[in-house]
Amino acid sequence: MRVFRALLPFILAAGLPGTGALAETSGLIRLTDRDDLFGWEAVGRIDIGTSGFCTGVLIAPDQVLTAAHCVYDRAGKPVDARTLRFRAGLRDGVVVAERGVARYAAIKGYDPDAGVTADNIRRDVALLELAKPIQSAVAAPFVLNGGGTKGQRVSVVSYGANREKAPSWQRDCGLTWRAKGIMAFDCNVIFGSSGAPVFARDGGRARILSLISGGNWQAKDKVAYGMDLPVLVKDLKRDLRATAPVTPANTGFRRIDVGTDRRASGAKFAKP
């Protein structure tokens, strides 16, 4: 995972029903049991060959949103779709469903060689098409939530370094600013949280407001960055239809080194 460099100078400054899991001092709730996971099954871990992982979320039975930088390797080359594996609701080795990826599309204009720039953050979105749909009765996809205003309360469900075996739910954090297609949040994210959905409440339902692109997780005042989604997702669906699916490979799942320097391709988190 690449280091999160300084952003361009112009950048300015949902909770659901309770769970039996215990909140950690970090404000995170580990979704360990099946009852804890109820309602969040569509969030899963995307394993990237043997190199690392990101977080993803279903927006259709066969479509998963994640960060664009997760589908590029360290050399800035697109990864083979056959090396990607979506594991919905993964917790301690148990999954709700597991699928390979037939093809994917990343937003045009995202430059994996440019590092972290404002343009890359606002385009840091990819859409994966699963080799086989996951039934909505097993993992109900989330819909998008447009808008987002400063001070709005949000929640995040993510995997991450040292918490990669089960999803962690931060029930309450905030949107601290929004400008020119970019949002900032004071949410607790880390390596592997790239692509994690940021949820806003709409009545009694959680909807996807943004995805985690990167952030500074070791600073005293944590910050995570995301992007506006509706227009990007519309473009991705169009581009995905024009992308040829890959020939399935019977590679299965292989164990991933986590908590070390061998992490996913390019997740952008900074040291102070």
UniProtKB/TrEMBL annotation:
Transmembrane feature ranges: none
GO annotation terms (biological process): proteolysis
Molecular function as annotated in GO: serine-type endopeptidase activity
EC number(s) per entry: 3.4.21.-
UniProt keyword list: Hydrolase, Protease, Serine protease, Signal
InterPro entries: Glutamyl_endopeptidase, Peptidase_S1_PA, Peptidase_S1_PA_chymotrypsin, Peptidase_S1B, TRYPSIN_HIS
Signal peptide: 1-23
Enzyme class: hydrolase
SUPFAM superfamilies: Trypsin-like serine proteases
Pfam families named in the record: Trypsin_2
Gene3D superfamilies: Trypsin-like serine proteases (2.40.10.10)
Family as reported in the entry's similarity comment: Belongs to the peptidase S1B family.
PANTHER family linked: SERINE PROTEASE
Protein name as it appears in the record: Serine protease
Record lineage: Bacteria, Pseudomonadati, Pseudomonadota, Alphaproteobacteria, Rhodobacterales
